[in-house]
């Protein structure tokens, strides 16, 4: 049996490479490439499966010219754009519905996301697959913990850590508010601006 040809389509050019969906797609690509033959932004149009992780101009062009099955992992839903990007939620509901209904299948990253997609009129078949974590790579290390604490002169102080983009939906304002109130802890936010 001939193996499937799979192409990950991800707009990771310039500043887009730091978007959460692009970094997550990269992690998934690394994990999958250990077990299947897969390309990253391959140039051909004759792959069996095109797996999209973004839906900007490049992805929409690739969608139009692809000859395979087009799958989109829905890293985003309209409600997460509130307070993050220009345009009201109603505008984004129309945009998402129009774009998502052009794919053959949608992978939603949670049941909540899948329900929101259905509520805005996305009618394509969907599957829920939660974002995974490489537990071999992201695991506790006493050595790394010690180096981090030494590098930032933390000693044995209690550290509250959050990893995520600095956006309202990730709780940045609440994080800062709590940090100002709890002086005995060190609050660390790791992550940049989303767009």
Task: Give a brief description.
The protein has 195 residues and is of the alpha/beta class. The chain has six helices and eight strands, in the order βαββαβαβαβαβαβ.
Number of domains: 2
Query: Could you give the distance between the termini?
Result: 43 Å
Q: Based on the structure given, which CATH architecture of the largest domain is correct?
A: 3-Layer(aba) Sandwich
The fourth-level CATH homologous superfamily of the largest domain is Glycogen Phosphorylase B
Q: Helix count?
A: 6
Point out poorly predicted stretches: none
* Number of DSSP strand runs: 8
**Mean pLDDT across all amino acids:** 87
State the helicity in percent bands.
25-40%
| Order of strands, widest sheet | 2-1-3-4-5-6
């Amino acid at each position: 049996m001939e193996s499937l040809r799979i192409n990950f389509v991800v707009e990771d050019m310039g500043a887009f490479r730091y978007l959460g969906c692009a970094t997550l797609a990269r992690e998934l690509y690394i994990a999958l490439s250990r077990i299947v033959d897969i390309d990253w932004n391959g140039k051909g149009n004759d792959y069996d499966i095109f797996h999209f992780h973004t839906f900007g101009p490049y992805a929409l062009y690739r969608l139009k010219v692809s000859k395979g099955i087009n799958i989109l992992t829905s890293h985003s839903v309209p409600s997460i754009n509130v307070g993050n990007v220009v345009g009201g939620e109603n505008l984004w509901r129309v945009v998402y519905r129009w774009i998502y209904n052009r794919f053959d299948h949608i992978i939603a990253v949670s049941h909540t996301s899948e329900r929101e997609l259905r509520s805005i009129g996305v009618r394509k078949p969907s599957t829920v697959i939660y974002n995974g974590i490489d537990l071999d790579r992201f695991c506790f290390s006493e050595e790394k913990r010690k180096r981090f604490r030494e590098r930032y002169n933390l000693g044995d102080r209690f550290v509250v850590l959050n990893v995520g983009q600095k956006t309202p939906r990730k709780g940045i304002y609440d994080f800062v508010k709590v940090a100002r109130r709890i002086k005995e802890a060190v609050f660390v936010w790791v992550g940049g601006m989303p767009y």
